[in-house]
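Quick check before the chapter quiz. The format below is the same one you will see on the exam, so make sure you can read both the input and the output lines.
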Amino acid sequence: MSTRLKNKEEKLLKILTSLAEESMNGIPIIVEGKKDVIALRKLGVQGIIITVKTKGKSFLDTISEIQQTSVSEVILFLDFDKRGKEATRCLQQNLEHLKIRNNLTFWRELSTLTSKEVQYIESLPVYLCNLRKRIITKRQ
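Here is the expected output.
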């Protein structure tokens, strides 16, 4: 059995569990689109998830929606591709201006853990499933 793969799975599950807990504590998670919401729901996240790119919303619409939740903190959890990184930076700057704290911890941890294996949040359930398959295969 590959301890490296098992450790990666454990770290990934720890990140996702912590993310779900923070969400249940009322901290909204900001993602790019509907598929990201579906992926996080599959992974057990049940709290508020706000999308950036749905129904023709602009960044200003998203920022307004975040303001309406009257929260002091949000979790930015956008994709790891170039567009996702740019959107994260833009949201971060705009929200800081509004005195809304940006939590990038989960985004950074996941990015570091999966390096270039995961580019899109929507691919997390499949990635986790494939990781588990690789662990089982290594056991045999």
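If your answer matched, good. The CA atoms of residues 76 and 104 lie 6 Å apart.
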